[in-house]
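Bump. Still looking for Ubiquinone biosynthesis O-methyltransferase, mitochondrial structure tokens.
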Amino acid sequence: MAVALGRSGALLRGAPRCAIYAVRYQHTASSVDPADIAHFSRLANEWWNEQGEFAPLHRMNRVRIEFMRQKLEEVRGWDAALADVCGAEHVPPPLPTPAFLTGQHMLDVGCGGGILAESAARLGARVTGVDASEENIRIASTHAAQDPAICLRAQGDVPGTADGSLLYVHSSAEALREAGHQFDIVTAMEVVEHVHRPDTFLRCLADLIKPGGHLFLSTMSRTALSYFLTIFMAEDVLRVVTPGTHRHSQYINPHEMVAFFRELGWIPTEQDVLAHRATLPDGSHVAPRPSRLQFETRGTMYVPMLGRWVLAPPMTADEAATHSPRPTWLPTWLGGGMRPTELCNYFFWIRRPFAT
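Sorry for the wait, here they are.
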């Protein structure tokens, strides 16, 4: 059930078709790191300079969208096939093309200047972008208001503008959870490595997702390669990223992310998958749901010769794939137990079970 958002702050003049407000919630969350918020607030004016501080995020946005499209399409296909063979009255239709996010209420946590949020709105989603930096929200709101193709929402849902619309909120994810909001899709791109308590933050994101909804994250592995590329080279040598932007100790390895959600109860055991299979009209059981339709980690890397980010090919997302091959002589910080494509940047997707 949609909950109307309270509003405050000045109306942005000239917003097309409908108004936009920077909605404020009290920041009561322990995961918000004041030092990181202050850091990104100082950089707020750089968000839409595609050759500046955030150029890597502009270039990465294409693979963010592609990863989301692939996972949603794969899950929708499985759901449709399962409904069909089980004789369900309603079979989920294929994803709309090209606006594949049509009908989805999406929350973009740590939206920054709105790079992903704007793209998602253009792809049909009803987007709420939230950031703990008021300066980021100001920049995001101003930029979106310049595009007449984006419908900017005021509070709650404006009739006729549910799909392909955008609302920015100056808040924390925890405050939205306390207000009772839930979403079909929650994204937090390059955010989890900047929060004060990653475990608290991830639990909050989990609570913000409707049963059957989707969580998309991108972050970095805690390896020697990620330190070399994201801190030593990007911050200390090339200075293309402001020094102090990243803290290597807060990076999270893929198997740690998987272990967290396994402990949360979102990743069933093999026995549970077999025990809870759907039954066909003839009384037999359908094939078990593949692990890659429960969760997946997928690497992405920047290829200088191509001048763009490349998404690694999909692989089986089970525990063995997350940990193998695993040279026992190679420590984790050198990549032991990790796929070569996930030694630095990677995406993570998981679907919330319908009953947890």
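Residues 23-220+249-278+286-300 form a domain with the Rossmann fold fold (CATH 3.40.50.150).

Edit: fixed formatting.
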